[in-house]
Amino acid sequence: MASLVRQIVCSTDPTHRVWEDPSFIKWRKRDSHVSLHCHDTVEGSLKYWYDRNKVDFLVSNSAVWNDDAVSEALDSATFWVKGLPFVKSLSGYWRFFLAPSPTSVPTNFCNSDFEDSSWETLPAVPSNWQMHGFDRPIYTNIVYPFPLDPPNVPTDNPTGCYRTYFNIPKEWKDRRVFLHFEAVDSAFYAWVNGIPIGYSQDSRLPAEFEISDFCHPFCSEKKNVLAVQVLRWSDGSYLEDQDHWWLSGIHRDVLLLAKPKVFIADYFFKSSLSEDFSYADVQVEVKLESSKETANDGLLTNFSIEAVIYDTGRWYECDGNVNLLSSDVAHLKLDQAPNALPGFHGYVLGGKLELPKLWSAEQPNLYTLVIILKDASGQQVDCESCQVGIRRISKATKQLLVNGHPVIIRGVNRHEHHPRLGKTNVESCMVKDLILMKQNNINAVRNSHYPQHPRWYELCDLFGFYMIDEANIETHGFDLSGHITHPTLEPSWASSMLDRVIGMVERDKNHACIISWSLGNEAGYGPNHGALAGWIRGKDPSRLVHYEGGGSRTSSTDIICPMYMRVWDIVKIAKDPTETRPLILCEYSHAMGNSNGNIHEYWEAIDNTFGLQGGFIWDWVDQGLLKEGSDGSKHWAYGGDFGDTPNDLNFCLNGLMWPDRTPHPALNEVKYVYQPIKISSRDSILKIANTNFFDTTKGLEFSWMVHGDGCILGSGLLPLPAIEPQSSYEIELESAPWYSLWASSSATEVFLTITTKLLNSTRWAEAGHILAFTQVQLPAKRGYEPHVIKTIGSAIVGECLGDTIRVSNQDSWEIKMNAWTGTVESWKVVEGVSVINKGIFPCFWRAPTDNDKGGGANSYAAKWKAALLDNLSFHTESCSVQNMTDHDIKIAVVYLGVPKDQEDMLSSNERSNIICKVDMIYTIYGSGDVIVECNVQPNTDLPPLPRIGVEFHVDKSLDQITWYGRGPFECYPDRKEAAHVGVYQQNVGELHVPYIVPGESSGRADVRWVALQNKEGFGIFSSIYGSSPPLQMNASYYSTMELDRATHNEELVKGDTIEVHLDHKHMGVGGDDSWTPCVHDKYLIPPVPYSFSLRLCPITPSTTSCYDIYKSQLPN
Predict the structure, then answer these.
(1) What transmembrane ranges does the database entry give (predicted)?
(2) 953 and 971 in contact (C-beta within 8 Å)?
């Protein structure tokens, strides 16, 4: 039988396409098991973890995202086996050849004597061959990159041929040798010395084969030849339709493992905590494996098993030499009872751990479990180990509990993605991800949408993250077919789906970080899922099962886990008395480009609604790939940039980070809504709440700062008693250290900022790291009064010179307006310095964001364009000087907004094409102030508007921008909670946010005043006026038209001026998802009349500060 299977698997006959048979998924592949380390001694195992756990934020500093990452990947492969004498990495430079199909690979390339000198020598393992210039990356979201014809795949099926050479160390004599592939995409065959040793599918889990009988004898000088044939497409590809790049090859490490004749093959650590958490009953299920010569029955007649638990935390409490062996805290004994676990044919060891240090994301306490196999003489034969955590995952009504507490999931989805390496992992880059997550208050990660590198789990255990581990199953593309059944409904796919779930659970079962197993993603729902859930619940009842498919509320999920459900709908489910499961959003707040609006509204609901326990943002990082342009420079590429078809363009760019892990501005908002220290003010009482479930505030430092109208009034430390978890502390205004400053201040607006910092360095941040940062507005001491400009006696001169209205004040300043258009043609100050080149125009349009474009014909952008808002031209109906005195001049302009190609129709008294009317009144004072009063009357049949405001242009030399408003980072009306009101200063170029696909960006919300100046101090000041509310402000070298034109950031061309927008209203950016118009109503701009006023005035080096200008408007 084995010979027959071998003939079928290895045949070159095109009729034997085993990669198109979903019932044939592996051959000679060993059963799934935990990662094995093959230690030589107990002390060696402890030393291994002692060194491996010495990782902190400093490691992340060496993360690289360019070509240097290729060598870093090889260094990581070496590091991961350091200290393991019976594990050898084969990662490194291999011979590589890419054939166009499986049937066209070089004949007999698997043979030892095959001549491969003409092949490329590449750092091919671990890597994706597309990242070395072979074949091309393909990005799709839902559609398969080949015809949907399961289980068949294209005959044009790029096939990678790999060859490498290895010796078996002499120290491994008489040991069994195993070849271990961490992951290969998508299916592969392997040969050793020309002998086929196995076949496997599943591109995200290990495949292991015993090769003891196929290697040259240990005493031989001959090198062993390993040949691998990797197929880009297989029937397994139908189960791997995740929203990411399709990349191929041996993308994780290849290892050799050496084991004795009888060895520890697998083990499962379990703990059961007492009700009061004072002790834990611990148990380890151990599987032993023997060679053919040694019968499994009666193994313990000649062997014994021991297990010891060591307290890892003790190792780092002293600076000198550490006695690792002295940290033992529990010894586990063999349970001699027959059939201790029905159906389990291994061995069970048990014991008790008194006063265990519990594991949680807040306090990730770990122990080291060591299992020792000894022979009859007491000599160690084999040793395995892993890190374990003692914790209890359980359910209560509408709650997921960790150690009895309903922890809140402040999570993010994470694909494995490196812009240079594709799916290959680097130690420092994984640490970088975790450091950034921790520093931004993220405490949970969903492995989207497949099991990830084994080291990732160790790091999540160590740093403290709640994890959903997800099976490598997604069949989203089947949704597009009306006649092909989803695999979950087909018995022929059941074994393949179950194999992927079993492989995940068996590999990862000992990791404390995993709180839930996921059956996959977007794979429909059917009986196969019921089988997967049943197997997991039977295998591991200590964790929850998660699956969103079928509406997120099927019997196959223990968590209600919807995607992109609206706030009001999740609240409705939480309040449904018939639903007893907790609701955790498996995906929400789609971070595509300038996005993540409304996220604070989700967290207002989560923080205040029983039954809501958080969610996972989609997603962590923009999946852009590094691509060299025609000019030799490199940029971030997305779908279609490699000539890949089909493709889903930039839908892979929806992360909180750029590909090189530079944070998007929206990450500030995430950090704010996720922060565990919540501060609020009500009725002159400041409340400081510690929303942690395990940590007190003992290790934190609180400080305060008070600003009045943007100026610092005072600051200091805020001594507080330690606030217990889930507790709060209140401070009354009159007893607060800032009370006297507030009481004596004449400022109209007074803001209090409370900053919470780490007192001491941790694994993930240095001392002084800001954990939480909240600003509250203190009560107003006086009612609001309209702004009034102080009278200044300087006379002004106004005159009409042909088509020009000229207004000036001696030699101080001069404004020239076009008498026909009513626009400012120039505004100059002393020495002829220009402060406005052209303007001031009404403006309704913005360059559409990704979210604006989502929804096809129903999208905001489509509706705007259908209403011709993108093609709007403002025609001057009238411009007249209404009043002219020695102290002020009033000019009234009436604009009619019409499509650019329909302007001529106005001359024929045709009014039906008028989209809007704008009345603008300029009042120019001798002081140099210009008040612009705007009255906007859009047609009522227009869609919600992008913006209501004005646009003007200033000289590029006015590149120093200062503003009093929210900042310092980009913020918008529906994403501004983290942006504090203050005075900020930047260069105009620094305002630009380089989203990979350009669009509306770089805005600042709630701006009271803004100044643009050149390096000499000349410039223009603008502020709100009268009863007008704060503005949305934007200043950029790139015009709105340019931001709309370019498809990549590097394509943007700077204009000749700086384009400035001051908006009375600006639509939110949205972010509930990116494929429907979903800006919340309160952040939309309905087409109704609007009125607002602005103040502008010139600035010179002799001008007092912007603060003084702003104050000059206010009553004494």
Answers:
(1) none
(2) no
382-420 residue pLDDT tens: 999 999 999 999 999 999 999 999 999 999 999 999 999
The CATH code of domain 676-778 reads 2.60.40.10
Tokens 């975790």 label which residue?
434
* CATH class of residue range 1-48+56-260: mainly beta
Three-state DSSP at 612 gives strand
Locus of tokens 């930047």: 986
For residue 915, pLDDT over 60 is answered with yes
Task: Give the tens place of pLDDT for each residue, 932-970.
Answer: 999 999 999 999 999 999 999 999 999 999 999 999 999
Distance CA 358, CA 279 (A): 10
Q: Match domain 401-673 to its CATH number in 3.20.20.80, 3.50.50.60, 3.40.50.1370, 1.10.10.10.
A: 3.20.20.80
Cβ(227)–Cβ(161) below 8 Å: yes
Beta-carbon count within 10 A of 779 CB: 10
- Residues whose CB is less than 8 angstroms from the CB of residue 963 and which lie 6 or more positions away in sequence, other chains included: 983, 984, 1004, 1007, 1009, 1010, 1011, 1033
* Phi, psi of 588, deg, nearest 5: -160, 170
Secondary structure letter of residue 8 according to DSSP:
H
Whole-number Å distance between alpha carbons of 45 and 383: 8
Specify which residues 138 forms β-bridges with: 246
Host H or E run for residue 22: none
Query: In 3-state terms, what secondary structure has residue 331?
Result: strand
Please tell me the distance from the alpha carbon of residue 987 to that of residue 140, in angstroms, as a whole number: 38
Please name the residues in contact with 1018: beta carbons below 8 A apart, sequence gap of 6 or more. Answer: 829, 830, 831, 833, 835, 958, 1098, 1099, 1100, 1101
Token representation of residue 219: 């005493």
Catalytic residue among 20, 587, 669, 1042: 587
Per DSSP, which regions of 453-499 are E strands? Answer: 466-470
Question: Residue 283 and residue 341: Cα distance in Å, rounded?
Answer: 11
Whether residue 72 lies in the annotated active site: no
Average pLDDT value for residue range 911-929: 90
All residues at 6 or more sequence positions from 70 whose CB lies less than 8 Å from its CB, including other chains: 123, 127, 420, 421
Q: How high is the pLDDT of residue 621? A: 98
The chain-wide mean pLDDT, for the chain, equals 93
Listed in order, the ranges of the chain carrying CATH 2.70.98.10 are: 797-1113
Instruction: Please state the three-class secondary structure of 512-564 as a single string.
Output: CCEEEEECCCCCCCCHHHHHHHHHHHHHCCCCEEECCCCCCCCCCCCCECCEC
Residue type for position 744 = S
Whole-angstrom Cα distance, residue 768 to residue 699? Answer: 11
Type of residue at 1057: T
Q: Mean of the pLDDT values across residues 629-643?
A: 94
- Does residue 239 contact residue 316 with C-beta atoms inside 8 Å? no
Active-site residue, from 427, 522, 701, 1059: 522
The DSSP symbol for 484 reads S
Q: Is 587 a catalytic site residue?
A: yes
Specify the domain boundaries for CATH 2.60.40.10 within the chain: 263-389, 676-778
Contacts of 1024 (CB under 8 A, 6+ apart): 787, 1007, 1008, 1009, 1030, 1031, 1093, 1094, 1095
3-state per-residue secondary structure call for 809-875: ECCCEEEEEECCCCCEEEEEEHHHEEEECEEEEEECCCCCCHHHHCCHHHCHHHHHHHCCHHHEEEE
The whole-angstrom separation of Cα 187 and Cα 200 is 6
Do 423 and 460 contact (CB within 8 A), yes or no? no
The predicted model scores a pTM of 0.96
Name the token pair of 578. Answer: 């018939």
Location of structure tokens 């609240």: 571
